[in-house]
Design a protein that fits this description.
This protein has 85 residues and is of the alpha+beta class. The protein is built from 3 helices and 5 strands; from the N terminus they run H-E-E-E-H-E-E-H. Helix content is 31%, strand content 19%. Helix 1 crosses helix 2. The chain is globular. Belongs to the UPF0386 family.
């Protein structure tokens, strides 16, 4: 599966325990998202377009109104990266 560099970065953060919190006004569509790392930092390059691509490829999902997390398919699709802390 072709996944862009920016999509890979977001998936990698999610694979390490991050989450995508979303805001849905009365219209029912997701209008704003914020991607958090497991440490609570905000990932600034996670945009609504990246979110929609990951969601359409079923690499992330949300259950019972919880924040979006990586799926099994997403975890198997992400390339490994060194954690440089």
């Amino acid at each position: 599966m072709n996944i862009s560099k920016h999509d890979q970065r977001v998936l990698h953060v999610l694979a390490l325990g991050g989450e995508i919190r979303y805001f849905r006004p009365d219209s029912g569509k997701v209008t704003e998202i914020i991607c958090y790392t497991r440490d609570g930092h905000v990932l600034s390059n996670c945009t609504l377009d990246i979110f929609k691509r990951l969601k359409s490829k079923k690499l992330i999902s949300s259950k019972k109104g919880q924040p979006y997390r990586i799926t099994q398919l997403g975890a198997s699709s992400v390339r490994s990266q060194m954690v440089q802390r």
